From TrEMBL:
InterPro entries: DHP_synth-like (IPR045031), DHP_synth_dom (IPR006390), Dihydropteroate_synth-like_sf (IPR011005), Hppk (IPR000550), Hppk_sf (IPR035907), Pterin-binding_dom (IPR000489). Its cofactor is Mg(2+). Pathway: Cofactor biosynthesis; tetrahydrofolate biosynthesis; 7,8-dihydrofolate from 2-amino-4-hydroxy-6-hydroxymethyl-7,8-dihydropteridine diphosphate and 4-aminobenzoate: step 1/2; Cofactor biosynthesis; tetrahydrofolate biosynthesis; 2-amino-4-hydroxy-6-hydroxymethyl-7,8-dihydropteridine diphosphate from 7,8-dihydroneopterin triphosphate: step 4/4. The lineage of its organism: Eukaryota, Viridiplantae, Streptophyta, Embryophyta, Tracheophyta. This is Pterin-binding domain-containing protein. One of its GO terms (biological process) is tetrahydrofolate biosynthetic process. It comes from Phaseolus vulgaris (Kidney bean). Keywords: ATP-binding, Folate biosynthesis, Kinase, Magnesium, Metal-binding, Multifunctional enzyme, Nucleotide-binding, Transferase.
């Protein structure tokens, strides 16, 4: 026997407990798990948790998501990715965990059967409870319903005690409640502060990096915990017309020499750009960009020094992105966030590499025109416009756990706008977080290096703007930037190390108070 209780916020009278509704009455359905009398007539919003600790964990996730989509489970949001210590049965490999929001017309027991079939297809067999498994798929929420049967309990009965479930679950929500179904999920927690209050009581963000749980991004066949320290990305422009170093590294020999220097100075990543995106730059073709890029990329990835480093390619062309990854690039850095190539999101969804989505209005030839420079509240508008691009990327199949955000310093911005960004990075995260905490938690990249706004404040040519760059990098890292893209690796790395030490000290104080 199954009992489905429906929380109806539109037809049933509610009262408030804190900010979340509680139920005065339920609509109740009685079915058996095998009954065809289930909820087929309308789509229901659901949350499914994912876990894996056997085999290629990321591949297991990818295949599970693909099979879910092919089975009538349409994924709308992804949580961040976490690597976690095993719970209950501790003598087993570490897990990766996440969760997705989706919509489906499958009834709850149909959904359960579908997920069990997917688990079996991916190699899961009956074993010890809480033991190793290639994939684990659990229904956390099903619409506004509570489900009780011999084989299914929704909400999942152990959500509330598991940080490795609560962290990705919270990622799927915004700090603002976006619909009645989400309000119901908060109510199900039984906490006056809803899921947010429950998560806070568990320790919330102080648990990340503690208790064996780390927020990670998959890259280069590994998992990068970007919270441990700020990464330094060295710039390699293989263009004749970049604003700072155009023409300096056109040959393979000069490019390799510059990469060797930046790695010796401590670069974690190298970002190779074969098309200038300076203001008023003329666009070159895919063929010309590939002609510049591929010989140098091939030489760079074969350097012994780059082992353990990440190679990024700066392009807004999907064909260039595809060729770059095929030739060894680990991530793609797109200044247009998919606006300049309608195929970019589709291509990136299949590439399984991180994607940097940057805020820009227009294109390099138009971004500094008067219309694109109009802002009423620059940080709020960047947050809204960047989130809309990332949301489209996610709906196109790029999981949130592979997205890096960039507020686009110097792109469709005046000097005062760039200063507002450096001052307002926490505000940008917070504003994005009202809609999606997973995107607000994504690694954030900033690229102020030697840009024009620094020259307007400190009147020097581009090549002499490193001290101003260091100051802006310092402000950015202290404001929450996780990756800094710079020309001068050595001096900026020193600034980054000091900032990281300050932030560790601050974190230590906060955790001791908590």
């Amino acid at each position: 026997m199954s009992i489905l209780k429906y929380l109806g916020t539109s037809r049933h009278k509610l009262f408030a407990a804190g900010k979340y509704p509680k139920v005065l009455s339920f609509s109740t359905f009685h079915t058996t798990p095998n009954s065809s009398v289930e909820l087929h007539s309308q789509e229901e919003e659901i949350v499914i948790a994912l876990g894996s600790n056997v085999g290629d964990r990321l591949h297991n996730f990818k295949e599970a998501l693909k099979l879910m989509k092919n089975s009538g489970i349409n994924i709308t949001r992804h949580a961040c990715l976490y690597e976690t210590a095993p719970a209950y049965v501790t003598d087993q490999p570490r897990f990766i965990n996440s969760a997705v929001r989706a919509v489906t017309k499958l009834g709850p027991h149909e959904l359960l059967s579908t997920l069990k079939r997917i688990e079996k297809d991916l190699g899961r067999t009956d074993g010890i409870r809480y033991g190793p498994r290639p994939i684990d798929l659990d229904i956390l929420f099903y619409g506004k319903y509570k489900v009780r049967s011999d084989i299914l309990t929704v909400p999942h009965e152990r959500i509330w005690e598991r940080p490795f479930v609560m962290a990705p679950l919270m990622d799927l929500l915004g700090s603002a409640i976006d619909n009645d179904t989400v309000a119901a999920w908060h109510s199900f927690s039984g906490h006056s502060g809803g899921l947010s209050g429950l998560w806070e009581d568990l320790g919330s963000e102080t648990l990340i990096g503690e208790e064996g749980m780390y927020r990670v991004i998959p890259v280069a066949n590994g998992l990068l915990d970007w919270s441990k320290r700020t990464s330094v990305m060295g710039i390699l422009n293989v263009t004749p017309d970049s604003f700072s170093d155009g023409g300096n590294f056109l040959s393979v020999e000069s490019a390799v020499s510059q990469v060797r220097l930046m790695i010796s100075e401590g670069a974690d990543m190298i970002d190779i750009g074969a098309q200038s995106t300076r203001p008023m730059a003329s666009r070159i073709s895919v063929e010309e960009e590939l002609g510049r890029l591929i010989p140098i990329l091939e030489a760079v990835v074969s350097m012994p020094e780059v082992e353990g480093k990440l190679i990024s390619v700066d392009t807004f062309y999907s064909e260039v992105a595809l060729e770059a990854v095929s030739n060894g690039a680990h991530l793609i850095n797109d200044v247009s966030a998919g606006q300049l190539d309608s195929n970019m999101f589709k291509v990136m969804a299949d590439l399984d590499v991180p994607y940097v989505a940057m805020h820009m209005r227009g294109d390099p030839s138009t971004m500094q025109n008067s219309e694109n420079l109009k802002y009423d509240n620059v940080c709020k508008e960047i947050s809204s416009e960047l989130y809309s691009r990332v949301r489209e990327a996610e709906m196109s199949g790029i999981p949130a756990w592979r997205i890096i955000t960039d507020p686009g310093i110097g792109f469709s911005k005046k000097t005062e706008h760039n200063l507002e960004i450096l001052l307002g990075l926490p505000d940008i995260r917070k504003e994005i977080g009202t809609r999606s905490l997973s995107i607000s938690h994504a690694p954030m990249l900033i690229g102020p290096s030697r840009k024009r706004f620094l020259g307007e404040i400190c009147p020097r040519p581009a090549a002499e703007r490193d001290p101003a760059t260091i100051a802006s990098v310092t402000a950015g890292v202290l404001g929450g930037a996780n990756i800094v893209r710079v020309h001068n690796v050595k001096d900026n790395l020193d600034a980054v190390k000091l900032c990281d030490a300050i932030l560790r000290q601050k974190s230590s104080h906060m955790k001791s108070r908590h």
